[in-house]
Amino acid sequence: MQIFKQIAPLKAFLRSTKCQGKSIGLVPTMGALHEGHLALFKTSKNENDITVGSIFVNPVQFNDPTDLAKYPRNFEKDVELLEAAGCDVLFSPENVEMYPAKATLSMDFGNLDKVMEGYFRPGHFSGVALVVSKLFNIVEPDQAYFGQKDWQQYAIIRRLVEDLNFDIRLHSVATMREEDGLAMSSRNARLSSEDRAKANVFFKGLLAGKSAFKAGASVKSARKKVRETVEVFPDVSLEYFELADSTNLNLLENVEQSERPIMCIAGYVGEVRLIDNMFLD
């Protein structure tokens, strides 16, 4: 696996790769890799000649400096995992390489970035879209891979690709889960062993919501059932539970309003914020 820290040599290498007619798959990450990430790399390896992974903890998508400081980092272990997974190229720049000057560009995605994560983390998706745009321009991949757990992010990147005419095919890869249902996430590394034992309540909440909707419940009554399921410990809290159209992210009052609705959930276990989602089909 070749590791690049700077943009120019990476672009030169990939330009020669393109000239050979080889296809390129990109898997953008912020590191602290787990089996969910590795599933993205496996998918890319199966569908492209060259797989490029990126590890960059993007500062402009954090609206809480404390959250940025506490984001888990384990570069040496990540490199070992990527080499074992057969990743061909790793791009891991320093902040100054990606942002030689203070970032001032902001992006607005209408309703897509105003609800759920966008509502509780204002500015977050503008920062995500900025760094993803940079990575798309640097790597120029044929295909790019993202995890379903961050579905709202995927919906926004899909709009980004459409609006800016990126010639890239996007893929959302199904969420990988622990044996007890907890969605794999880099943030899980911040959970104490005691909190880890509680963290699958969000998965249980989604199952409770799905059961309620299948029984004909309204969003209001389903949300009540979800809250009762999640908030069974004093240090666990539900931030939101919403039913949304999976394409435009419009919040729904009932399942009949969308051809493919998705349930989205977020909350805290202690100080650690977790998100998850589940399609109803």
Structure, explained:
The protein is α/β, with parallel strands linked by helices. The chain has two domains: 172 residues, 3-Layer(aba) Sandwich (Rossmann fold), CATH 3.40.50; 94 residues, Pantoate--beta-alanine Ligase, Chain: A,domain 2 (2-Layer Sandwich). Helix content is 40%, strand content 20%. The chain contains eleven helices and nine strands. It has a six-stranded parallel β-sheet with strand order 1-4-3-2-5-6, with helices on both faces. α2 links the parallel β2 and β3. α7 crosses α8 and α10 runs antiparallel to α11. The longest helix is centred in the middle third of the chain and has 16 residues. The termini are far apart. The mean pLDDT is 97.
**Roughly how much helix do the residues carry, as a percent range?**
25-40%
| General form | globular
| Structural category | alpha/beta
N-C termini distance: 39 Å
CATH classification class of the largest domain: Alpha Beta
